[in-house]
Request: fold
Amino acid sequence: MAKIKKRKLSWNKSPSPQVVGYKLYWTEGEGVDYDANFVKLGNVTEVVLPDDVKALADINGPIELGIAAIDEVGNESDLITIKLPYQLKVPQAPSELRLDPQKEFHTVQASDSVQNKPELEPKASGQTGATDSRPEQSPPYPWGKVAPTSA
Reply:
C-alpha cells in the first residue's frame, strides 16, 4: 500500500465574535477564489491533509488553498491563500523486482558463523519436563534448519 505524506494546514482564529466556522477553498494550479471547490470545516483552525478533506486526494500537482471565515448568516471574510507544491498522489511503483545470482561469492570466516553460537545442552536421559530456559537461537541462514547428517 502506498503512502502520502500528511500535512497540517492551520490558521489563526478570526477575531470577529460572530464567526461560526471556516470554509476551505482550493484550485489546481493558481487562482483560488469563491468560485473554486470548497468544503465547510466547522469552527476549527487546522485540518490534516488529505485525511480531513477527502476531495483533495484526487488532485495531482500544485494547488492553491484559501480559507474564509463564515458568520452566523453565511457571510464570508476575505480569503487568505497559500500556494502549495504539495503532491497528493503517490509516484508509480518501480517494476520487475529481481534477485539475480552473481558469479562471485562473498567470503566469510567459517569461525564467524559457527563458533559464536552457544551450544544447547541435551536433556539428561530419564528427565521429564526439564526444559532449557535459554532462548532458541535462529539459524545463521534464512531458509530454516538443516537436518543433521549421520556420521
